[in-house]
């Protein structure tokens, strides 16, 4: 078990070594996307929305946008990036000639997206705190939210990878699963404004629970009971999707 | 024994890629797996180090089963993969240091180990290059460096020289010979008969997932195609005459190949006599080689009386 963890961390470290080589160009889009939303939708459209849940629209948007970075960074990593490393670059084929096995590849990649999700969400949230849009009191706990969402969405990316027949098919999965998740997880407006069936559907989105948690933390509206429910939902979602992802990627890499 | 395989099978759905294959690999030998593309060579070797699982039969590598102990096996095996599979996101040295971490070289020894091997494969001057900036031959040599990082007892070479020019091929053969001198056990897959003849102590010829013949290159030539071969331009008259000669003398074998008519006899003198009799100059007269064995045992030689 210890050996598995050690080897998995070496896979994670490989990704970090590559990532840090072009750190600024890698990190730029992760930050620029939510910032563009903040400036265009938050400040632009927000000028027409005077008050939402007792705050400015830009403050309403901020926690959700911070968490959405975990969704995108994790999903892209285990879908497009993993697929390219597997199909075109053959990196896993080379790794599998070393003591690293399929299990370590899967765990190593999941540790990577969990850490990346945590780091990115924290970074964006910290910048939004600096702008004064949200409250920094519980900022440190955003790391956990970002990590949980990153892990869950990384598993979704793995499942997508195991389903596609070619790289273009990721676009369909993005359009039909990731985009709706982004728009209907309570980032842009409260889910309670949606018809009941759609509200129920949103409960199945890991991003929704992450957004709720981030909002509680960054708006400083702490309700332990409600937050525990969202944490539990995220953990359950992570475990189930991880089990599926593991099964499917294992079968893909070990034939 | 380093590897013992008994009646190994590998199926991909309905396709049987490896069919009832048994062989043994002894310590310190260079063992060849020869065969055309799609013969099942790469599939078979990936079951040796556990990157792929066999669907039938038994296999022991260092006395361990690759199905359950592949991690232990892989700490003692180095593999030159058929595709280079180099990590293009990193430079030569970064690439190798990451792989050194995978095979468990301690952090403070990685730099030295990598440099030592880059030197061995004459690549030290390229240590800071990007992978894409390396020529095909250099990339191949770098894959050797990667395979040797863990100081393996068994080195698996999956078509190590396919697609390389003769100069690089000879350089790689030299390096393989150096490994042999150090008593490293080597498994080599190739479809180049010359490569197998030069490097392998023993080999199996595989065709359509099965073993068609086993032995040392000399034994195989002696057993299946002793003597010499003369090639003639294809010509129907000549073919008829040769056919008659073969009918009269069972020691002479006629076969067709892509370039014309092939004739095999016990000696060059006998072949010269026949060509004088035929009043036709052969394109080439040469000793039989593994290619003749391969064509003969796989039934691709269309022999008239063999």
Structure, briefly:
The complex is a heterodimer of chains A (255) and B (306). With 255 residues, chain A is an all-alpha fold.
Topology overview:
The complex is a heterodimer of chains A (255) and B (306).
Chain A (H helix, E strand, L loop, with lengths): L1 H20 L1 H22 L12 H31 L3 H5 L6 H29 L11 H22 L5 H15 L12 H7 L3 H13 L5 H30 L2
Chain B lengths: L2 E10 L2 E11 L4 E5 L6 H8 L7 E6 L8 H5 L2 E4 L11 H11 L4 H14 L15 H13 L5 E5 L7 H16 L3 E6 L2 H7 L2 E6 L2 E6 L1 H8 L3 E5 L3 H13 L4 E5 L2 E6 L2 H11 L5 E4 L2 H8 L9
Structure description:
Chain A is an all-alpha fold. Helices cover 76% and strands 0% of the residues of chain A. In chain B, α3 (92-102) crosses α4 and α8 crosses α11. In chain B, strands 5-6-7-3-8-9 form a six-stranded mixed β-sheet, sandwiched between helices. In chain B, a hairpin with a 2-residue loop joins β8 and β9 (210-215). In chain B, 37% of the residues lie in helices and 26% in strands. The A-B interface holds A 3, 7, 10, 13-14, 17-18, 21, 89-91, 93-101, 254-255 and B 12, 49-53, 70-71, 74-75, 77-79, 81, 83-90, 94, 98-99, 101-104, 146-147, 150.
């Amino acid at each position: 078990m210890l050996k598995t963890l050690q080897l998995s961390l070496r896979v994670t470290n490989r990704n970090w070594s590559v990532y840090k080589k072009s750190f600024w160009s890698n990190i730029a889009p992760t930050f620029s996307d939510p910032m563009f939303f903040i400036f265009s939708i938050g400040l632009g459209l927000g000028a027409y929305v005077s008050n939402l849940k007792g705050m400015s629209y830009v403050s309403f948007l901020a926690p959700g946008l911070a968490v959405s970075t975990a969704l995108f960074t994790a999903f892209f990593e285990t879908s497009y990036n993993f697929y390219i490393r597997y199909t075109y670059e053959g990196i896993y084929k080379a790794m599998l000639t070393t003591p690293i096995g399929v299990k370590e590849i899967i765990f190593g990649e999941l540790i990577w997206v969990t850490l990346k999700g945590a780091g990115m969400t924290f970074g964006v949230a910290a910048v939004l705190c600096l702008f004064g849009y949200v409250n920094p009191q519980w900022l440190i706990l955003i790391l956990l939210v970002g990590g949980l969402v990153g892990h869950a969405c990384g598993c979704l990316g793995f499942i997508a990878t195991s389903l596609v027949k070619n790289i273009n098919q990721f676009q369909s999965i993005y359009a039909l699963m990731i985009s709706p998740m982004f728009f209907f997880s309570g980032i842009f407006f409260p889910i309670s404004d949606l018809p009941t069936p759609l509200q129920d559907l949103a409960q199945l989105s890991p991003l929704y629970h992450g957004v709720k948690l981030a909002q509680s933390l960054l708006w400083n509206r702490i309700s332990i009971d409600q937050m525990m429910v969202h944490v539990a939902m995220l953990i359950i979602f992570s475990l189930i999707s991880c089990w599926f992802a593991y099964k499917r990627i294992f079968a893909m890499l070990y034939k | 024994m380093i590897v013992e395989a008994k009646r190994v099978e590998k199926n991909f759905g309905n396709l049987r890629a490896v069919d009832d294959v048994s062989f043994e690999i002894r310590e310190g030998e260079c063992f060849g797996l020869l065969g055309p593309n799609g013969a099942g060579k790469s599939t078979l070797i990936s079951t040796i180090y556990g990157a792929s699982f066999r669907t039938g039969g038994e296999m022991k590598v260092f006395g361990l089963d690759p199905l359950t102990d592949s991690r232990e096996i892989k700490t003692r095996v180095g593999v030159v993969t058929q595709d280079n599979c180099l990590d293009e996101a990193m430079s030569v040295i970064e690439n190798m240091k990451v792989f050194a971490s995978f095979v468990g070289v301690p952090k403070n020894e990685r730099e030295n180990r990598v440099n030592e091997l880059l030197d061995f494969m004459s690549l030290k001057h390229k240590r800071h290059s990007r992978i894409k900036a390396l020529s095909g031959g250099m990339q191949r040599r770098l894959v050797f460096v990667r395979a040797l990082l863990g100081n393996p007892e068994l080195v698996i070479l999956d078509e190590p020289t396919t697609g390389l020019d003769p100069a690089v091929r000879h350089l790689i053969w030299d390096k393989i010979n150096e490994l042999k001198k150090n008593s490293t056990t080597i498994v080599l897959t190739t479809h180049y008969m010359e490569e197998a003849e030069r490097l392998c102590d023993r080999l199996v010829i595989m065709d359509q997932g099965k073993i068609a013949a086993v032995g040392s290159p000399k034994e195989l030539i002696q057993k299946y195609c002793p003597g010499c071969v003369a090639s003639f331009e294809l010509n129907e008259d000549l073919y008829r005459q040769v056919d008659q000669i073969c009918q009269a003398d069972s020691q002479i074998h006629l076969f067709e190949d892509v370039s014309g008519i092939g004739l095999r006899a016990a000696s060059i003198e006998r072949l010269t006599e026949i060509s004088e009799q035929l009043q036709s100059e052969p394109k080439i007269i040469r000793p039989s080689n593994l290619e003749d064995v391969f064509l003969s045992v796989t039934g691709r030689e269309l022999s008239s009386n063999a």
